[in-house]
Write a structure and sequence with these properties.
Layout lengths: L15 E7 L2 E6 L12 H7 L12 H27 L9 H12 L25 H10 L6 E5 L11 H6 L3 E6 L2 H10 L4 E5 L1
Length: 203
């Protein structure tokens, strides 16, 4: 494996991930973003099911998730330092200044944007108990505050389920809306996977 390029979006040709903390400061990690499908117990089950499994789509392909991920993990086990240096020249510069980045995250997390964030925000009650506010938790917080819409517009619905962060919100939280999908077969699968009040249109 020889690194030849990097991208700031996920692609079918990825071998590992670069976790960028600020400009010049990053670590390489194995691909761990493939297995978000409800009802799938393990990566092995997805890989055993083959190319036509609902686990895979045009980005999260079987090749990426079952083969390239293993190669990347093996490389990092044995040559992490060498590959980190080899990849460094491909990592884009984002002009990240870590203190400002962390302050901005805290402001959004606690609803203080665009007000200025002070260090005391990190000491707010509940910060340590809830260090990771994911999409679902954020939705519940906003919903409880009366600020969340229960309708979404999803551009690129795929099959409506595979590795889709909106799927739990639609199925379990009752979020409705409109999904747009260019592929006719995927649009039909999305209609089968999602409730009837979530409309799917093929573009």
């Amino acid at each position: 494996v020889e690194p030849i390029a990097a991208s700031d979006v996920q692609t079918p040709w990825d071998v590992f991930l670069a976790l960028v903390y600020d400009d010049g400061n990053f670590t390489l990690a194995p691909l761990n973003d493939c297995w978000g499908v409800p009802g799938i117990d393990s990566a092995a089950a997805c890989c055993a099911a083959g190319e036509k499994s609902l686990c895979f789509n045009t980005v999260f392909t079987m090749d990426r998730c079952c083969h390239r991920s293993k190669v990347g993990a093996a490389v990092l086990r044995h040559r992490a330092k060498a590959y980190t240096e080899a990849v460094r020249r491909f990592i884009p510069s984002y002009g990240i200044r870590r203190p400002e980045h962390l302050a901005r995250r805290l402001r959004w997390r606690w609803g203080h944007e665009p007000a200025r964030c002070s260090p005391e925000v990190a000491k707010s009650p509940g910060f340590e108990e809830h260090p990771d506010m994911g999409l679902r938790k954020a939705f519940r917080i906003l919903s409880n505050a009366g600020l969340a819409s229960r309708r979404v517009l999803q551009v690129g619905t795929n099959d409506g389920k595979s590795a889709d962060p909106l799927y739990p919100l639609i199925v379990e939280e009752g979020v409705a809306g409109l999904g747009l999908e260019a592929d006719a077969a995927l649009a039909e699968r999305a209609r089968q996977n999602l409730p009837r009040d979530f409309e799917i249109r093929q573009l």
